[in-house]
Amino acid sequence: SMFISVAKKNDLLFCISGSGNSENILALVEAADKLEIPCVYLSGLGGGKLARKGLLGITVQSDNMQIVENTHLFLVHELYNILK
């Protein structure tokens, strides 16, 4: 995958999956794990498989995808404001 070709030491993978079960995101997390690149995530709907991986992350405790996605948008916006 392109991730493997550009990933390097001291990188951090930041994943967003509304359900925590997006197969492409889970594959990316597996690739990052093999490269010893830490991963943090945002999810919802109980956290799905991402939350069960023992990763550092935030799970929005809602079964409403609109609330999950709106909360993710807010969190990413605030993270941007902190880091800029």
Element order: H for helix, E for strand: HEHEHEH
Count up the helices: 4
Class from helix and strand fractions: alpha/beta
Described by strand count, sense and barrel closure, the largest sheet is:
3 strands, parallel
Q: Describe the strand arrangement of the main beta sheet, using strand numbers.
A: 1-2-3
User: Outline, from the CA principal axes?
Assistant: globular
Give the amount of beta strand, in percent: 15-25%
Helix content: 40-55%
Unreliable stretches covering 5 or more consecutive residues: none
Strand tally is 3
Q: End-to-end distance, in Å?
A: 29 Å
**How much is the average pLDDT?**
93
Gyration radius from CA atoms, angstroms:
13 Å
